Records
---
Amino acid sequence: MTQDFNPKRRLLSAAMIAAAAAPTVGFAQSGDKPVRIGYTMSRSGPYAPGAQVSQEPNYLLWAQQVNAAGGLSVKGQKRKVELVSYDDRSEIETAVRTYEKLMGSDKVDLILPPWGSAMNFAIAPLANRFGYPMLAPTALSRKLIDMQLPYFFSLLQQPDKMMGALVDMLTANNVKTIAVIYMDDLFGIENMASLRVALRGKNIQIVESKSYPLGVKDLSSVLKAIKGMNPDAFIGITYPPDTILASTQSREIEFNPRIFYASVGTAFPLYKARMGASAEGVMGMGSWNSRVSPGAKAYFDAHVAQMKKEPDRWASGHAWAGLEILQQAVGKVGLDRKALREHIASTEFNTILGKIRFSQGENASIPGTVGQWQNGEFEVVWPANRATAKLIPVKPAWKK
């Protein structure tokens, strides 16, 4: 395949910030040398629904806010930010070629990560080779952490933590049987493996586990078979379109176990919009909402005001926290990428999610969590010391 690397630059304004399909968003000011920050994002293809909720809107909002404040502080000197971005079309090969160009020939000052575990798995070694710090808000892969790439930093809680929190919650609520469907890619396979490990020694039986391919259009036959097994809990390790598909088809066949967990996508405002009252009690991956800190409330309100939509209650918060960390690090040590890497690896940062520090590239500050839709908000319900609301232990019946 070939990739057209000729960007169409344009200035970002309040009226244009939502136009995430623009190949490049520029922020130049005469007489200034902008800080050029490169990335690819899935604006088309199967990864686009997640990328255009959890990541790119946050990149655009952050750049707008930074430039409105006079620019990014580079060791005390304000410089405008210029985002150099491309649609990777949800194609790993396209993303790899584009990042090679951004870092190799374009020599951008900094990079931002693409969306999703598979994309990050491909790009992280490349960023490490070129020496670019990479703060990833949507990489959910223990294998990637274990590669010990010095320039890679993962903000999300990893599969072992998330599945561990899920199993702890299931155990505390006397769940004995579960049925699982999972995406047949790195995200699904790794989380399924972590779930099996977390279940060791627990009195919980997996009565069914089924993988499915990217782009699946119908899960009804699998769900009907699972309904016949009458499990206490349903677990979907799913991407956003599949999360909604599994939920709507479960509602259609009246499959309503007392615990219904699916992710990613459950924490998206789109899930609430599509499911309506049926979202009540549904669980998934999520770790924040606007009540976790004053900064989270300010971010949430700014996102709604500028992007005309709510952020999701999981990776959007991590994306913003990553941008906060990058901004603080550049303000302290400038654009020397090796110095940035050392500073990020050795410093605790204040973010909208609370204090974050990294241990061997992993976010060591935030534990695994479980979220649940309650009265129109995706609440953190597990563990208790991170909870914004008490768990609803039995999901209400689906609403038609």
---
Amino acid sequence: MKIRKTGIVALAAALVFAAGCGKGNSEQYEAGAKALEAGDYAGARTQFESCITAGQSLAQSYRGAGIACLKQGDPVQAEEYLKQALTELGDKNKSTCRDILFYLAQAQTQQGKTEDAAASYDEILSDGDNAQAYVMKGRLLLLGGDEAQAEDCFDKAVKDCKDYDIYIDIFETYNDVKRNADGTKYLEKALQIEQGTAQDNYEHGRVYYYLGDYENAKEYLSQAVSDGSKEAMLLLGRVFLELDDASSARAMYKNYLTDEERAAEAYNGLALCDLAEGAYDSALENISQGLACRNITEEERKLLLFNEIAAYEHKADFSAAQTKAAEYVEQYPDDEQAAREYIFLQSRQQNQ
């Protein structure tokens, strides 16, 4: 089983849930918001549905319930709730409406309703250019085989754009359809963004990381680390791993752990060092510490849980690996790679 080194880019899934609905929120709504943030999607859905039944904070509760359903792998119900959220919201808040439309398009995409999803992105774009909406619509078009229209969307997304994430998202989209050369030109465009801040050293290092040019990535990221960038330390650790220098990577992650912020990702990095060196029990210990971190994000939790399965499999504890895979697939039903791995582990156990 392959380990996962990073969850740097997460396209539409990176949208953040925010309570933000004023002092009139009920305790149930607040409980739902906290459960959603903590990754307790079943609990969040229950709380939001109770709010809906009680007629409380309807637009926000329908939105929260829709997101929870989407995270649970129930895009049909998610679409219904998100549409109702838009109806309840009306023209009250354009930014919230735009946010809901992104989730709605995601729910429609998961059902194979690509025309409806494209229409949702068009509705976002009707209110003005939006780079992320162009990227997501372009992704739909590219996966549907309309390469010319997809490229047009991507070109509109990067027009006068200084957001490196947009360029990387486009590269990842092309990478998903095995068209790395087409995606690479967008990374090369990102390198043309004029450098004017210390942050640009990190961003250029990140672009070189995706280009697979680890020597240049190391040079820029090392400078960013010297400039005090904490996030550059995490990525530089991954660069060292790509260069088969687990010792330097381990030192980078340990240095990072002097600060508690994003400690979970650093523990994942240490676990990757352990896996590279065959220290599987140590990897599991670092994963356990990462999962116990106070400020862990959902993406970090997902990464650690996935690599936990890999660690058990590498140490030939296939029973534990299967148990962990079953738990993971239940929590993240849309992860196709994990689902395939779970099927493999089941068949292995049956054949023993």
